[in-house]
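Consider this record:
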Amino acid sequence: MRPQLAGFLTFLEAERNAAANTRAAYARDLTQWFDFAEREGIAENEISGEDIYAFLGTLKTRDKGLERRSQARKLSAIKSFFLYLEKRGHIKKNPARQLKAARYKRLLPRPLRPVELEKLLDDNIGDEQKFTGVRDKALWEVIYSSGMRISEGLSLGIEPFQNENIPDEIKVRGKGGKDRVVYLGAAAREAILEYLPFRADVLYRRRISSSGLFINFKGTALTRRGAYYLIKKRVAALGLDHRITPHSLRHSFATDLLNEGADIRHVQEMLGHASVSTTQNYTQVAKERLFDVYRKAHPHGRR
């Protein structure tokens, strides 16, 4: 099976338009499965559904309770891989065809509370490196203003931002290679304007050029891991909830729009969700937030 992995990943990219992160996750999951099958001495033509369930069971024991959602993703990777092998005639029988993942409870997104958002986006950066401070503020403002995924924000090119007239709408490419238009508010545009001279200075001193908007001290593109580390560092310094991640800003964007009465279909379009059912998770969050206000403010609403 292992030699077929490269072809499968190419298939995901070329025919399924799967994002790079999806392909990387599937590659990790399938490599774990290959390792298990080889370790257990399971011949390729003898694989059964029970073997695949046993694999998931070992992961659950090793990882001290693998979440059902993670189990479902790993099983999805295996089922997709075997279906690929079956359709190309590499196997006669698909052992994963009838397998079903355990149902998992979809976790509600965790948006930032207003006070958390205010602290995170505060102008008083308090960073010993001015470049890092203005860059991070620009990135967080862009994500909150537009609702982009962090990967979409980090993939922004410099071309639309090369003069003082920062556009209030830009086109981004989301999951599945689908383009959509997102919007930048005044705070985000001002933060980008403040950041651009510092970006230019870093590139000048390094004697290099970069096509990306958000860069690091070396002048190369800021990575997802780097952005995650930076927000965790700031969250810890401010004493905020440790669960806050770059994606929390996207959650806040959607929840705040719905709280202010935005149409769910419009929010779905701005988020780039393929299905409105995904966006509907935010309506529940909005209700929870309103009910929390009621409980705290109404004399008879307190527990």
